[in-house]
Amino acid sequence: MSGRQTIEADWAWTGERFESGVQVVVAETGRIHALDRGAAPTRRHERAALVPGFVNAHSHAFQRGLRGRGERFPAGSGDFWSWREAMYELVGALDEQELFRLSAQAFGEMLDAGITSVGEFHYLHHAGDAADYGFDQVVLEAAAAAGIRIVLLNAYYATGGIGQALAGAQRRFRSAGIEAYWTQIERLESILDPRTQSLGAVAHSIRAASVEDVAALHAEAQRRGLPFHMHVEEQRREIEECQAAYGGRPMQILNETLEIGGNLTAVHCTHSAAEDLTRFLHAGGGVCVCPLTEANLGDGLPSLSPVSLVADRLSLGTDSNARISMLEELRWLEYGQRLRTRTRGALRDEAGEVAPTVLNAATAGGARALGLPAGRLAAGNWADLAVIDLEHPSLAGCDAEHLAAGLVCGTDNEVLLGTYVGGRWRGRGRRFI
Predict the structure, then answer these.
(1) Helix crossing, 134-146 with 96-112: angle to 10°?
(2) Stretch 234-255: mean pLDDT
(3) Band (433; pLDDT cuts 50, 70, 90)
(4) Which of 10, 268, 271, 299 is catalytic?
(5) In whole angstroms, what is the distance from residue 332 CA to residue 351 CA?
(6) What is 54-370's CATH topology?
(7) Is the confidence at residue 353, as pLDDT, over 80?
(8) pLDDT at position 432, please?
(9) Average pLDDT of every residue of the chain
(10) CB–CB of 146/108 below 8 Å?
(11) Where in the chain is the domain with CATH 2.30.40.10?
Protein backbone atom coordinates (compact mmCIF):
# COMPACT_ATOMS: atom_id res chain seq x y z
CA MET A 1 0.00 0.00 0.00
CA SER A 2 1.32 3.45 -0.86
CA GLY A 3 -0.29 6.75 0.11
CA ARG A 4 -3.43 7.47 2.10
CA GLN A 5 -6.65 5.77 1.00
CA THR A 6 -10.31 6.04 1.94
CA ILE A 7 -12.42 2.87 2.02
CA GLU A 8 -16.19 2.92 1.96
CA ALA A 9 -19.12 0.50 1.69
CA ASP A 10 -22.87 0.82 2.10
CA TRP A 11 -22.70 0.07 5.83
CA ALA A 12 -19.96 -0.25 8.46
CA TRP A 13 -20.04 -1.95 11.87
CA THR A 14 -19.29 0.58 14.62
CA GLY A 15 -19.32 -1.88 17.53
CA GLU A 16 -23.04 -1.57 18.30
CA ARG A 17 -24.76 -1.26 14.93
CA PHE A 18 -24.27 -0.98 11.19
CA GLU A 19 -24.24 2.64 10.01
CA SER A 20 -24.26 4.16 6.54
CA GLY A 21 -21.85 6.81 5.25
CA VAL A 22 -18.87 5.75 7.40
CA GLN A 23 -15.54 5.98 5.58
CA VAL A 24 -12.31 4.44 6.86
CA VAL A 25 -9.32 6.68 6.15
CA VAL A 26 -6.12 4.60 6.11
CA ALA A 27 -2.69 6.17 6.63
CA GLU A 28 0.48 5.02 4.84
CA THR A 29 1.43 3.18 8.03
CA GLY A 30 -1.48 0.78 7.56
CA ARG A 31 -3.36 2.17 10.55
CA ILE A 32 -6.71 3.94 10.57
CA HIS A 33 -6.10 7.67 10.44
CA ALA A 34 -9.73 8.64 11.02
CA LEU A 35 -13.35 7.80 10.31
CA ASP A 36 -14.88 10.29 7.89
CA ARG A 37 -18.11 11.04 6.08
CA GLY A 38 -18.72 12.68 2.72
CA ALA A 39 -15.20 12.51 1.25
CA ALA A 40 -14.47 11.02 -2.16
CA PRO A 41 -13.54 7.37 -1.46
CA THR A 42 -10.42 5.83 -2.96
CA ARG A 43 -12.16 2.48 -2.97
CA ARG A 44 -15.88 1.88 -2.66
CA HIS A 45 -17.38 -1.57 -2.22
CA GLU A 46 -20.87 -1.52 -3.74
CA ARG A 47 -23.66 -3.48 -2.08
CA ALA A 48 -21.27 -4.44 0.67
CA ALA A 49 -20.63 -3.84 4.37
CA LEU A 50 -17.41 -3.33 6.33
CA VAL A 51 -16.68 -5.07 9.62
CA PRO A 52 -13.44 -5.09 11.60
CA GLY A 53 -11.40 -8.10 10.53
CA PHE A 54 -12.12 -11.08 12.74
CA VAL A 55 -9.47 -11.88 15.35
CA ASN A 56 -8.75 -15.57 15.87
CA ALA A 57 -7.35 -15.68 19.40
CA HIS A 58 -6.40 -19.37 19.48
CA SER A 59 -5.06 -21.54 16.66
CA HIS A 60 -2.81 -24.56 16.19
CA ALA A 61 -2.02 -24.17 12.49
CA PHE A 62 -0.22 -27.51 12.06
CA GLN A 63 -3.39 -29.34 13.10
CA ARG A 64 -4.89 -28.32 9.74
CA GLY A 65 -3.18 -31.54 8.65
CA LEU A 66 -5.58 -33.56 10.82
CA ARG A 67 -8.69 -32.65 8.87
CA GLY A 68 -10.61 -35.88 8.41
CA ARG A 69 -7.84 -37.92 10.04
CA GLY A 70 -8.97 -37.61 13.65
CA GLU A 71 -12.58 -38.69 13.08
CA ARG A 72 -12.19 -42.48 13.48
CA PHE A 73 -13.05 -43.88 16.90
CA PRO A 74 -11.91 -47.52 17.13
CA ALA A 75 -13.90 -49.76 19.45
CA GLY A 76 -12.65 -49.63 23.01
CA SER A 77 -10.87 -46.28 22.72
CA GLY A 78 -12.08 -42.89 23.90
CA ASP A 79 -12.86 -40.31 21.23
CA PHE A 80 -10.29 -37.77 22.41
CA TRP A 81 -7.52 -40.33 22.70
CA SER A 82 -8.07 -41.54 19.12
CA TRP A 83 -7.73 -37.94 17.95
CA ARG A 84 -4.60 -37.50 20.05
CA GLU A 85 -2.99 -40.58 18.51
CA ALA A 86 -3.59 -39.09 15.04
CA MET A 87 -2.10 -35.78 16.22
CA TYR A 88 1.09 -37.40 17.51
CA GLU A 89 1.42 -39.36 14.26
CA LEU A 90 1.26 -36.08 12.34
CA VAL A 91 3.73 -34.38 14.70
CA GLY A 92 6.26 -37.16 14.21
CA ALA A 93 6.05 -36.94 10.42
CA LEU A 94 6.33 -33.18 9.91
CA ASP A 95 9.36 -31.47 8.40
CA GLU A 96 9.86 -27.76 7.76
CA GLN A 97 8.43 -27.87 4.22
CA GLU A 98 5.25 -29.67 5.26
CA LEU A 99 4.75 -27.45 8.33
CA PHE A 100 5.06 -24.39 6.10
CA ARG A 101 2.52 -25.81 3.66
CA LEU A 102 -0.01 -26.70 6.35
CA SER A 103 0.40 -23.38 8.16
CA ALA A 104 0.07 -21.32 4.98
CA GLN A 105 -3.00 -23.37 4.05
CA ALA A 106 -4.60 -22.69 7.44
CA PHE A 107 -3.75 -18.98 7.38
CA GLY A 108 -5.10 -18.63 3.84
CA GLU A 109 -8.37 -20.26 4.85
CA MET A 110 -8.56 -17.88 7.79
CA LEU A 111 -8.29 -14.87 5.49
CA ASP A 112 -11.04 -16.36 3.33
CA ALA A 113 -13.12 -16.58 6.51
CA GLY A 114 -12.62 -12.86 7.24
CA ILE A 115 -9.93 -13.47 9.87
CA THR A 116 -7.21 -10.84 9.61
CA SER A 117 -5.30 -11.59 12.86
CA VAL A 118 -4.40 -14.92 14.42
CA GLY A 119 -3.04 -15.80 17.83
CA GLU A 120 -0.97 -18.86 16.95
CA PHE A 121 -0.67 -20.91 20.15
CA HIS A 122 2.53 -22.56 19.01
CA TYR A 123 4.09 -25.50 20.83
CA LEU A 124 5.51 -27.57 17.95
CA HIS A 125 9.01 -26.07 18.20
CA HIS A 126 11.66 -28.48 16.98
CA ALA A 127 12.40 -29.77 13.47
CA GLY A 128 14.61 -32.48 14.94
CA ASP A 129 15.17 -34.18 18.27
CA ALA A 130 17.52 -31.45 19.49
CA ALA A 131 16.27 -28.12 20.83
CA ASP A 132 16.72 -26.35 17.49
CA TYR A 133 13.47 -24.30 17.54
CA GLY A 134 13.51 -24.63 13.76
CA PHE A 135 9.72 -24.67 13.47
CA ASP A 136 9.14 -21.32 15.20
CA GLN A 137 10.46 -19.30 12.28
CA VAL A 138 8.63 -21.51 9.76
CA VAL A 139 5.27 -20.47 11.22
CA LEU A 140 6.19 -16.79 11.01
CA GLU A 141 7.27 -17.25 7.39
CA ALA A 142 4.01 -19.01 6.54
CA ALA A 143 1.99 -16.16 8.05
CA ALA A 144 3.99 -13.62 6.06
CA ALA A 145 3.44 -15.58 2.86
CA ALA A 146 -0.31 -15.73 3.47
CA GLY A 147 -0.51 -12.05 4.44
CA ILE A 148 -2.19 -12.50 7.82
CA ARG A 149 -1.35 -10.59 11.00
CA ILE A 150 0.09 -12.99 13.59
CA VAL A 151 0.76 -12.93 17.30
CA LEU A 152 3.05 -15.92 17.82
CA LEU A 153 2.00 -17.20 21.24
CA ASN A 154 5.13 -19.17 21.91
CA ALA A 155 4.41 -22.01 24.31
CA TYR A 156 6.43 -23.30 27.22
CA TYR A 157 6.04 -27.08 27.33
CA ALA A 158 8.18 -29.02 29.80
CA THR A 159 6.27 -32.12 30.95
CA GLY A 160 4.09 -34.76 29.29
CA GLY A 161 1.70 -34.72 32.24
CA ILE A 162 1.93 -33.53 35.82
CA GLY A 163 5.24 -34.93 37.05
CA GLN A 164 5.78 -36.95 33.87
CA ALA A 165 8.65 -36.76 31.36
CA LEU A 166 8.04 -35.91 27.72
CA ALA A 167 7.93 -38.99 25.51
CA GLY A 168 7.89 -39.81 21.81
CA ALA A 169 6.65 -37.04 19.53
CA GLN A 170 6.17 -34.76 22.56
CA ARG A 171 9.92 -34.13 22.52
CA ARG A 172 9.32 -31.80 19.59
CA PHE A 173 7.43 -29.55 22.01
CA ARG A 174 10.18 -29.38 24.61
CA SER A 175 11.15 -26.21 26.45
CA ALA A 176 14.54 -26.58 28.17
CA GLY A 177 13.80 -24.38 31.16
CA ILE A 178 12.58 -20.85 31.84
CA GLU A 179 15.85 -19.13 30.88
CA ALA A 180 16.04 -20.97 27.54
CA TYR A 181 12.41 -20.04 26.87
CA TRP A 182 13.06 -16.30 27.22
CA THR A 183 16.27 -16.59 25.19
CA GLN A 184 14.19 -17.97 22.33
CA ILE A 185 11.58 -15.23 22.75
CA GLU A 186 14.33 -12.64 22.39
CA ARG A 187 15.71 -14.36 19.28
CA LEU A 188 12.26 -14.31 17.72
CA GLU A 189 11.84 -10.63 18.58
CA SER A 190 14.87 -9.89 16.43
CA ILE A 191 13.32 -11.41 13.28
CA LEU A 192 9.73 -10.16 13.52
CA ASP A 193 8.16 -7.93 10.89
CA PRO A 194 6.73 -5.21 13.16
CA ARG A 195 4.03 -4.33 10.63
CA THR A 196 2.27 -7.67 11.00
CA GLN A 197 4.04 -9.78 13.65
CA SER A 198 4.32 -9.74 17.43
CA LEU A 199 4.76 -12.19 20.30
CA GLY A 200 2.95 -13.48 23.34
CA ALA A 201 3.94 -15.83 26.16
CA VAL A 202 2.29 -19.16 26.94
CA ALA A 203 2.31 -21.86 29.57
CA HIS A 204 0.74 -24.66 27.57
CA SER A 205 -1.31 -26.11 30.45
CA ILE A 206 -1.13 -27.36 34.02
CA ARG A 207 -0.09 -30.69 32.45
CA ALA A 208 2.89 -29.23 30.63
CA ALA A 209 4.23 -26.69 33.15
CA SER A 210 4.57 -26.81 36.93
CA VAL A 211 2.70 -24.26 39.01
CA GLU A 212 6.04 -22.62 39.86
CA ASP A 213 6.93 -22.32 36.19
CA VAL A 214 3.50 -20.94 35.31
CA ALA A 215 3.89 -18.25 37.97
CA ALA A 216 7.41 -17.33 36.82
CA LEU A 217 6.39 -17.17 33.15
CA HIS A 218 3.32 -15.05 33.88
CA ALA A 219 5.22 -12.60 36.07
CA GLU A 220 7.89 -12.09 33.40
CA ALA A 221 5.27 -11.73 30.67
CA GLN A 222 3.62 -8.99 32.72
CA ARG A 223 6.98 -7.27 33.18
CA ARG A 224 7.62 -7.37 29.42
CA GLY A 225 4.09 -6.24 28.55
CA LEU A 226 3.24 -9.44 26.67
CA PRO A 227 -0.13 -11.21 26.48
CA PHE A 228 -0.12 -14.51 28.36
CA HIS A 229 -2.30 -17.50 27.37
CA MET A 230 -2.88 -20.93 28.83
CA HIS A 231 -5.14 -23.94 28.25
CA VAL A 232 -7.38 -24.24 31.33
CA GLU A 233 -9.88 -26.96 32.25
CA GLU A 234 -10.45 -28.28 28.75
CA GLN A 235 -10.94 -31.90 29.89
CA ARG A 236 -12.16 -33.42 33.14
CA ARG A 237 -9.05 -35.62 33.35
CA GLU A 238 -6.89 -32.49 33.50
CA ILE A 239 -8.92 -31.26 36.47
CA GLU A 240 -8.75 -34.58 38.29
CA GLU A 241 -4.97 -34.81 37.89
CA CYS A 242 -4.53 -31.23 39.07
CA GLN A 243 -6.66 -31.84 42.16
CA ALA A 244 -4.61 -34.94 42.98
CA ALA A 245 -1.28 -33.15 42.56
CA TYR A 246 -2.04 -29.64 43.84
CA GLY A 247 -5.22 -29.94 45.90
CA GLY A 248 -7.34 -27.74 43.67
CA ARG A 249 -8.76 -27.21 40.21
CA PRO A 250 -6.54 -25.45 37.61
CA MET A 251 -8.59 -22.23 37.72
CA GLN A 252 -8.47 -22.24 41.51
CA ILE A 253 -4.69 -22.61 41.36
CA LEU A 254 -4.36 -19.70 38.94
CA ASN A 255 -6.58 -17.47 41.09
CA GLU A 256 -4.56 -18.24 44.21
CA THR A 257 -1.08 -18.13 42.62
CA LEU A 258 -1.04 -15.37 40.00
CA GLU A 259 -1.66 -11.66 39.94
CA ILE A 260 -4.17 -12.12 37.15
CA GLY A 261 -4.19 -8.64 35.60
CA GLY A 262 -5.40 -7.90 32.10
CA ASN A 263 -2.86 -9.85 30.06
CA LEU A 264 -4.01 -13.38 30.97
CA THR A 265 -6.37 -15.34 28.74
CA ALA A 266 -7.61 -18.76 29.82
CA VAL A 267 -8.46 -20.89 26.80
CA HIS A 268 -11.52 -23.21 26.83
CA CYS A 269 -12.67 -23.14 30.51
CA THR A 270 -15.03 -25.91 29.39
CA HIS A 271 -15.47 -27.34 32.88
CA SER A 272 -14.72 -24.26 35.00
CA ALA A 273 -16.83 -23.69 38.10
CA ALA A 274 -18.85 -20.47 38.03
CA GLU A 275 -17.30 -19.14 41.24
CA ASP A 276 -13.76 -19.73 39.96
CA LEU A 277 -14.49 -18.12 36.61
CA THR A 278 -16.22 -15.12 38.19
CA ARG A 279 -13.24 -14.48 40.46
CA PHE A 280 -10.85 -14.82 37.51
CA LEU A 281 -12.81 -12.38 35.34
CA HIS A 282 -13.18 -9.76 38.05
CA ALA A 283 -9.42 -9.91 38.60
CA GLY A 284 -8.96 -8.87 34.96
CA GLY A 285 -8.61 -12.22 33.18
CA GLY A 286 -10.16 -13.10 29.84
CA VAL A 287 -11.63 -16.27 28.36
CA CYS A 288 -11.19 -17.67 24.86
CA VAL A 289 -13.60 -20.37 23.71
CA CYS A 290 -13.32 -22.51 20.58
CA PRO A 291 -16.83 -23.89 20.00
CA LEU A 292 -16.19 -25.96 16.88
CA THR A 293 -13.15 -27.74 18.31
CA GLU A 294 -14.74 -28.20 21.72
CA ALA A 295 -17.69 -29.85 19.95
CA ASN A 296 -15.49 -31.86 17.57
CA LEU A 297 -13.54 -33.37 20.47
CA GLY A 298 -16.68 -33.87 22.54
CA ASP A 299 -15.21 -31.85 25.41
CA GLY A 300 -18.47 -30.07 26.27
CA LEU A 301 -20.06 -26.63 26.32
CA PRO A 302 -18.60 -24.08 28.76
CA SER A 303 -20.97 -22.13 30.96
CA LEU A 304 -20.37 -18.51 30.07
CA SER A 305 -22.96 -16.88 32.32
CA PRO A 306 -20.18 -15.22 34.40
CA VAL A 307 -18.68 -13.82 31.19
CA SER A 308 -21.90 -11.96 30.44
CA LEU A 309 -20.99 -9.68 33.36
CA VAL A 310 -17.77 -8.61 31.62
CA ALA A 311 -18.49 -9.40 27.98
CA ASP A 312 -15.44 -7.57 26.66
CA ARG A 313 -13.31 -10.36 28.21
CA LEU A 314 -14.61 -12.97 25.73
CA SER A 315 -12.75 -14.05 22.58
CA LEU A 316 -12.94 -16.86 20.01
CA GLY A 317 -10.48 -19.27 18.43
CA THR A 318 -10.44 -21.92 15.71
CA ASP A 319 -8.08 -24.17 17.72
CA SER A 320 -7.59 -27.44 15.77
CA ASN A 321 -8.75 -25.87 12.48
CA ALA A 322 -10.90 -28.88 11.64
CA ARG A 323 -13.23 -26.22 10.25
CA ILE A 324 -12.21 -22.60 9.71
CA SER A 325 -15.21 -20.28 9.80
CA MET A 326 -15.48 -17.50 12.34
CA LEU A 327 -19.12 -16.98 11.42
CA GLU A 328 -19.79 -20.61 12.29
CA GLU A 329 -17.84 -20.23 15.55
CA LEU A 330 -20.11 -17.28 16.36
CA ARG A 331 -23.21 -19.30 15.73
CA TRP A 332 -22.00 -22.24 17.83
CA LEU A 333 -21.03 -19.82 20.59
CA GLU A 334 -24.52 -18.35 20.78
CA TYR A 335 -26.47 -21.56 20.21
CA GLY A 336 -24.30 -23.49 22.67
CA GLN A 337 -25.18 -21.02 25.40
CA ARG A 338 -28.85 -21.21 24.46
CA LEU A 339 -28.70 -24.99 24.88
CA ARG A 340 -27.05 -24.65 28.29
CA THR A 341 -29.38 -21.98 29.62
CA ARG A 342 -32.53 -22.96 27.71
CA THR A 343 -33.01 -19.30 26.86
CA ARG A 344 -32.58 -17.36 23.65
CA GLY A 345 -29.99 -14.62 23.69
CA ALA A 346 -27.88 -16.00 26.50
CA LEU A 347 -25.08 -13.57 25.58
CA ARG A 348 -27.30 -10.54 24.95
CA ASP A 349 -26.19 -6.98 25.72
CA GLU A 350 -27.96 -4.48 27.97
CA ALA A 351 -30.42 -3.67 25.19
CA GLY A 352 -31.27 -7.34 24.77
CA GLU A 353 -29.41 -7.70 21.47
CA VAL A 354 -27.44 -10.89 20.85
CA ALA A 355 -25.33 -9.93 17.85
CA PRO A 356 -23.22 -7.08 19.32
CA THR A 357 -21.85 -9.19 22.19
CA VAL A 358 -21.13 -12.15 19.93
CA LEU A 359 -19.64 -10.13 17.06
CA ASN A 360 -17.44 -8.19 19.44
CA ALA A 361 -16.05 -11.46 20.84
CA ALA A 362 -14.75 -12.18 17.33
CA THR A 363 -13.28 -8.69 16.90
CA ALA A 364 -12.57 -6.40 19.88
CA GLY A 365 -12.46 -9.27 22.37
CA GLY A 366 -9.89 -11.14 20.32
CA ALA A 367 -7.80 -8.02 19.86
CA ARG A 368 -7.81 -7.46 23.63
CA ALA A 369 -6.69 -11.03 24.25
CA LEU A 370 -3.77 -10.64 21.84
CA GLY A 371 -2.78 -7.13 22.88
CA LEU A 372 -3.45 -5.78 19.38
CA PRO A 373 -4.66 -2.32 18.37
CA ALA A 374 -7.37 -3.88 16.18
CA GLY A 375 -10.91 -5.22 16.34
CA ARG A 376 -12.67 -1.85 16.10
CA LEU A 377 -12.99 0.81 13.44
CA ALA A 378 -11.15 3.50 15.38
CA ALA A 379 -8.29 5.92 14.76
CA GLY A 380 -4.93 4.40 15.65
CA ASN A 381 -6.02 0.80 15.13
CA TRP A 382 -4.69 -1.33 12.31
CA ALA A 383 -6.77 -1.00 9.14
CA ASP A 384 -7.83 -4.66 9.25
CA LEU A 385 -11.24 -5.08 7.65
CA ALA A 386 -13.51 -7.75 6.24
CA VAL A 387 -15.96 -6.97 3.44
CA ILE A 388 -19.41 -8.58 3.47
CA ASP A 389 -21.40 -9.23 0.27
CA LEU A 390 -24.88 -7.77 0.84
CA GLU A 391 -26.11 -9.38 -2.38
CA HIS A 392 -25.40 -12.91 -1.18
CA PRO A 393 -28.68 -14.90 -1.05
CA SER A 394 -28.20 -15.79 2.62
CA LEU A 395 -28.51 -12.08 3.49
CA ALA A 396 -31.61 -11.41 1.37
CA GLY A 397 -34.04 -9.28 3.35
CA CYS A 398 -31.51 -8.12 5.97
CA ASP A 399 -31.50 -4.36 6.41
CA ALA A 400 -28.93 -2.49 8.49
CA GLU A 401 -30.90 -3.07 11.70
CA HIS A 402 -30.95 -6.85 11.24
CA LEU A 403 -27.68 -7.47 9.41
CA ALA A 404 -25.61 -8.30 12.49
CA ALA A 405 -28.05 -10.94 13.69
CA GLY A 406 -28.34 -12.22 10.12
CA LEU A 407 -24.57 -12.68 9.91
CA VAL A 408 -24.40 -14.54 13.22
CA CYS A 409 -27.40 -16.79 12.70
CA GLY A 410 -27.64 -17.32 8.96
CA THR A 411 -24.39 -17.06 7.00
CA ASP A 412 -21.04 -18.69 6.35
CA ASN A 413 -17.74 -17.87 4.63
CA GLU A 414 -19.37 -17.39 1.24
CA VAL A 415 -20.62 -13.93 2.27
CA LEU A 416 -17.01 -12.69 2.54
CA LEU A 417 -15.69 -10.79 -0.47
CA GLY A 418 -12.18 -10.25 0.91
CA THR A 419 -10.08 -8.61 3.60
CA TYR A 420 -7.77 -5.71 4.27
CA VAL A 421 -4.73 -6.31 6.49
CA GLY A 422 -3.00 -3.05 7.32
CA GLY A 423 -4.89 -1.46 4.43
CA ARG A 424 -3.74 -4.09 1.89
CA TRP A 425 -6.61 -5.65 -0.05
CA ARG A 426 -6.86 -9.39 -0.65
CA GLY A 427 -9.81 -10.85 -2.50
CA ARG A 428 -11.28 -14.08 -1.22
CA GLY A 429 -9.96 -17.30 -2.71
CA ARG A 430 -6.35 -16.33 -3.56
CA ARG A 431 -4.02 -19.28 -3.18
CA PHE A 432 -0.43 -19.22 -1.96
CA ILE A 433 0.60 -22.87 -2.27
Answers:
(1) 40
(2) 96
(3) very low
(4) 268
(5) 22
(6) TIM Barrel (3.20.20)
(7) no
(8) 46
(9) 93
(10) yes
(11) 5-52+378-427
The answer to whether 422 and 88 have CB atoms below 8 angstroms apart is no
User: Tens digit of pLDDT for each residue in 34-72?
Assistant: 999 999 999 999 999 999 999 999 999 999 999 988 777
Mind giving me the DSSP string for 183-243? HHHHHHHTT--TTTEEEEEEE--TTTS-HHHHHHHHHHHHHHT--EEEEES-SHHHHHHHH
268 is catalytic: yes
CA nearest 58: which of 204, 267, 203?
A: 267
Binned at pLDDT 50, 70 and 90, residue 8 comes out as very high
Res 238 pLDDT > 70: yes
Ranges in the chain annotated CATH 3.20.20.140? 54-370
The one-letter amino acid at 213: D
Rg (CA), the chain: 21
Residues 6+ apart with CB under 8 A from 212: none
Rounded mean pLDDT of 270-280? 95
What is the residue type of 149?
R
Q: Tell me, which fold does domain 5-52+378-427 have in CATH?
A: Urease, subunit C; domain 1 (2.30.40)
SS3 content of the chain, % helix, strand, coil (to 5): 40, 20, 40
Catalytic residue among 276, 319, 384, 389: 319
